[in-house]
Write a structure and sequence with these properties.
Blueprint: H1 2-14, H2 18-39
Helix pairs in contact: 1-2
Length: 51
């Protein structure tokens, strides 16, 4: 999600489309939040383990 958000941010800046930039920022921040929660050992999305 973080990579997808960064790609949308870059596309939004290069193509001058503010909607892509805004959505990219939201997705990137959400991805970082999930990454931090997962690294703290909390269950993310109802999953304790990733197989």
């Amino acid at each position: 999600m973080i990579i997808f958000g960064v790609i949308l941010i870059i596309l939004g800046v290069l193509l001058s489309i503010p909607v892509l930039y805004s959505i990219g920022v939201i997705i990137a921040v959400f991805g970082v939040i999930l990454w931090v929660l997962g690294s703290m050992g909390r269950a993310v999305g109802g999953r304790d383990h990733w197989y």
